[in-house]
Amino acid sequence: LIMTRSSFAEAFDALGFAMIPDFRNTIIKGVPPPSAPSTIAFKKRIGKEYANTPLILTRTMLASIAYEVVE
Asked: What is the DSSP string of 23-43?
């Protein structure tokens, strides 16, 4: 099997594309450390769906997760 530069780029491109949902799901499931009680209270007060989940307030970060293949 001979791997060319373009086939490596294609493989890494596919890997990056496949990893985006994994990163998003990890964040949605919750990552340590937990949010402070004041943060949870604030999120509940403004009606956020993921009040107990760190790193999610506006979902902007989730939407911005991307990848780049650099040679």
From this structure: HHHHHHH--SSPPPHHHHHHH
